[in-house]
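Key idea: predict the complex, not the pieces.
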Amino acid sequence: SYVLTQPPSVSVAPGQTATITCGGNNLRGKSVHWYRQRPGQAPVMVVFDDRDRPSGIPDRLSGSKSGNTATLTIIRVEAGDEADYYCHVWDSTNDQPIFGGGTQLTVL
Amino acid sequence: QVQLVESGGGLVKPGGSLRLSCTVSGFSFSDYYMIWIRQAPGKGLEWVSYISSSSSYTSYADSVKGRFTVSRDNAKNSLYLEMNSLTAEDTAVYYCARDPEVTAFFDYWGQGTQVTVSS
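Result:
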C-alpha cells in the first residue's frame, strides 16, 4: 500500500524556521494535507490541498510541494508550535486515506 | 460552531464488543462523509472506517474488516462504530472526523474516546 515518509523528529530554537517533510511516490499527483496534534489533544488541520490554510491558522505555517516531497514550514517558531505533525493523502488506488508516521516538533 | 463529541469508550475484555457514538452539531450532518480514525498509545494516526453521507458506501481498514461496522443516523446527527471481537491491538483513542470534500481531508475532529481492551 501507499507509504508517506516523515522524519520522526525535528528540533528548532524559538524564532527560527522549522521544516517538516513528507515524501511519497508520485506525490505530485496527490493533494497533501497536514495536521497538528498537541500533547493530549485531538489533531487539527493546519494545511489542506498542499498549501491552503483553514481559517484561524496563522500564516506563519505554510505548505508546499515539489516533486515527490511535500513540506510544512513554520516560521518564527513559538513554544506553542511544539506538537506532532502528520501529513495525509488519499490513496485512490486502494480508496483509503494514508497518514505519514508523524514528526515530533521540539522547540528548544 | 462545528462540534463533534465521541462517547462510548471504556474498558472491555478481549473478544468483547463496544459501540462508539459521535454526535455532531453546527453543520448539516447529512451532507458530509464521516470517518473514524484511531491512535494507539504512543503511535500515529490510523484510518479505521468511513461512510458516505447517505450511508450508501462504507469502507474499512483491513485491520478491522469483518469485525467493525460503521453506521449513521442523519436524523439524530450521529455516527456510530460497532466493534466486535476486540483484541489488545484495538486499544486506542478513537476519533470521528468530518470529510468536507468526499475522500479528501478531515477539517473537524472530535476530542476522542479511549478504548482499552484488556483482561
